[in-house]
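queue> holo job accepted (5-phosphoarabinonic acid)
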Amino acid sequence: MENLRLRFDFNNMMSDFIGDRGIKESDIEKLMPRIESAHRAMAEKRLSGGMDWRDLPYNQSRTVDEIIDYVNEVKDDFEAFVVLGIGGSALGPMAVQQAIKSPYYNELDREKRGGFPKLYVMDNVDPERLAYFFDMIDVTKCLFNCISKSGSTSETMSQFMIIKEMLSQKLTKEEASKHIVCTTDRSNGNLIKIAGQEGYKTFIIPSGVGGRFSELTPVGLLPAAMCGIDIKKMLEGAAFMDEICKDGDIYKNPAYMYAVLSFAAMKQGKNIAVMMPYADSLRLVSDWFAQLWAESLGKRTDKYGNEVFAGQTPVKALGVTDQHSQVQLYTEGPFDKMIVLIGVDNFRRETIIPELYGDIPSLGFLGGITQNKLIQTEQMATEYALYKAGKMNLTITLPEVNEFTLGQLLYMFEVATGFAGELLEINAFDQPGVEEGKNATYAMFGRPGYEDKKKELDSRPEKKEKYIIK
Ligand code: PA5
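queue> job finished
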């Protein structure tokens, strides 16, 4: 599997290459005591059960078998598999499906989909989207996967309630129950109780694994398997990366090095991290990563209670598309960001540009080359432009995009996020800022138990008309 190992090239983060605005080896040397203590903290947390997501590549063989059996049992009964989830319960399933399958997966006929159902992910409560969805789909031909770790997220549960009601209007109780499968915590929240009472097939998210670290649990594995993705290979890729990430030597551990470079970049005011895959298939990996990095590291206080306002803003971009939109800013704009390019050595398909217009030099040079070569060359050219402009950038390369390499990539970013949390001395596994918004929503709806929050909200200053332009 060594031939499928990811490569991590951080030359262009370093001052030897991009000059004074880069990171010096001596900067990294100075961080060594902090790096060593972060490594110890990671190892201790893992041993004491504080990082259960790290064991997922190894401890799920029964779950995987159960998922595969379930998929084989039901896949022919449904036209579409519809995920109802949000945040960590939606971004991973979308990223993995897009990476492994055709971008036109749902448009393919069933045979070309390998006999698997279409996949839709409903991750918002936009009323238009759901209504348009119902215009297009027959709910009695869908299997709905309600995914919620907490089992009480309003957005997901509201969608679940709408679907349940629709199914019950069209089907008998017994039939309707076969159209819902739940993925949730074993004991916490409403969903597990409802699933038990109403007889839904249920998969469990291990209790020590938080939402954004849950892609390698049934949260991600069930939707992936339902599209014919090899989930065993994904977990093998994660296990392969886990071995690499056990090494305390940051020069051998790409996840640690990613975190260290990001930490050093943040110290220099580079508080934006652009992720720019040069492959459409990896576009949604940037979305998945954005949540992981933002929600984990964006924290007001450190673990000692000091106000630190930590974090680095993730920005999503796509090569080459955003060369014609964002790269001008990245090369000539402020020195406030690091840019992460993700490349692919071998694409699954090859598209040749025909040898036309040989007499027009600005077009003729394209004739006979492949788009594969074109996208890779443009990636190298962007890397060069960034290097020349003195802008921090690094490149992660996948030998090819498949389940094994994707498992490596996702797992590497998870470890990097955990390690960055240790370096920043913050809790990377909570999200108090998200809770505030959730609680304010509950208060506005007058949910029992949120009376004080409602009073707090009602005491906020009235908006001034003069600041509203109509
Ligand atoms: O990372 C997290 O914990 C969150 O982003 C959650 O994934 C998100 O809020 C959805 O939560 P739940 O799965 O409990 O519905």
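queue> The mean pLDDT is 96.
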